[in-house]
Structures are given as C-alpha cells and as structure tokens.
Amino acid sequence: MMEPDRCSRCRRTAVAHQPYSGRALCAEHLVRDVESRAKRTLRQQAGLRHGDRVGVLAPGGPYGEALLVFFSRQFAARRDLALVALVPGGAPPPALPEGLEAAAIGDEDPYGAARRLGCSLLALPATLEERAADVLGAVLAGRPAALAGPAARGGLRAVRPFEHIPGLELRLYLAALTGAPPAPEPLSSAGPFEVFVADELARHTAGHPSAPFALVRLADTLATLVSGEPDRC
Ligand SMILES: [Zn+2]
Description:
Blueprint: E1 16-18, E2 23-25, H1 27-45, E3 53-57, H2 62-75, E4 82-88, E5 101-106, H3 110-116, E6 121-123, H4 128-140, E7 157-159, H5 167-178, H6 192-207, H7 211-227
Parallel strand pairs: 3-4, 3-6, 4-5, 6-7
Antiparallel strand pairs: 1-2
Helix pairs in contact: 1-5, 2-5, 4-6, 4-7
The chain binds zinc ion.
Zinc ion binds next to helix 1.
C-alpha cells in the first residue's frame, strides 16, 4: 500500500497539493494558507476601512459560498464593519454564515446593486483560474483596457480576495470547514470564446503551473499603474 502524502508543515495526511509551490497541506494548514493569502490580497487591493459596508457577492456554487465563509470567519466579529451577502436571482440562496445579512439582487449588475444597498466595498468570488482566463481573454480579444479592474467605480471599491487561489483549493477549503465532501468543479455558463480561453489556459497550466499566477500579477500591476496612486509620479 502506498504511503499517503504528508503535510509539508505538520506531517499529517495531506488533502491538497500545490504543484506551483511543491507543497502538500493537511486540512488545517490548507484553511490557514487560503485565509492568509486571501487577507494579503484583500490588503493589497483596497483593504478594509473603518465603517465599511461590504457587499459579498454570493452566486450559487462553491466559490460564492467560500467567500461568505471567509468573510464571516475573518470579519463578522468586527463591530466597525457590516457584511451583506448579495445573492443574484436564480441562485439558490446559500446557507448564510453567522454575522451576515442577505439581499436578493435578482439580475441587477453587482456594482449597481452594491451601490444601491449603500456598500462601500464589493467583494467578488473570482478564483485564480477565472481571473487568469479574464486576463488572457482580454488580451486575445484586443481589449487590454479591461485589465484595469478592480478599480473604484463610482466611489465603490472592488476586491477579489481569491484571485491568487486555485478553485480546487477553495473547494477543499470549504469542505474542510463544512465537513461536506468537496464540491465538483462548477459548470461554466460562459460563451464559446470564454470556454476556449479557459481550456487553452488549463492545457498550458498543466505544464507550467505558475502561468495563471503570472497573468493575474500582470493585471494587478497594470491596475496599479492605471489607478495612478498619488505617491507615484
Ligand atoms: Zn498540516
């Protein structure tokens, strides 16, 4: 019988493997790793400010649910923040973790809905693969200006805390916290071009595991340049 893989941190049985880092992680260290990376990304993007009302976009499926769980675990206890789950129509309402109120937004644009509901920050559940495919698709379609997000729109800041985390690790994170078996990869509702881009990216990533990270970092760098931070000339 083969020895099970061991966590690189504590030698317990590993539940997740990171081909891009060479590490294996047990359930507990995966949860810590996902949350510390998501918090770092959140700080790098727009951060949380005192008095923020945060709209957490929660479409049906594991990534919206993981985003709700992440915000609930990390920030529900903060008295200076309000957390609102924005639930699009058609999505089955997610099980709402502690500390969040919910607002059904139907098919309204999430940015418009967040502004209407008085949010100052919108959190989007995009995964590494989704964000990297957006970046690659924008380049291939000749729309590099689309890479400038997530910038402030009409006073609303937007963040994607999971954009450096592979979808599989997020599904395992959710499973580790809920005790349910890991959700399968959700079916994409994207059009043929988006499906083509996602397939090409997945094929390339099989041989070059760090490629999607490089694409997302490129978009982040461009967004910083475009937003023209005041301390830069
Ligand atoms: Zn461990």
